[in-house]
Write a structure and sequence with these properties.
Length: 62
């Protein structure tokens, strides 16, 4: 998956995708609800499918 697609999917689910300046990983964090952030590497982001990204990295709201 490309970064732009991951950012769009994250935004559609009230999350943001940003780069951690220390580790270099991509961090997915919720914006409008309380949830722990998670991260993934460049390689993992490029290899992941849309469905797996949503299931594994977009936090549940409920």
């Amino acid at each position: 998956m490309l970064v732009a697609e991951a950012m769009r999917l994250a935004a559609e689910h009230s999350c943001e995708l940003s780069r951690d300046p220390v580790s270099g990983d991509w961090v997915v964090a919720s914006i409008s609800y309380d949830s722990d952030a998670c991260s993934l590497s460049d390689a993992a982001l490029l290899a992941i499918s849309r469905e797996d990204f949503l299931r594994d990295y977009i936090p549940d709201r409920f």
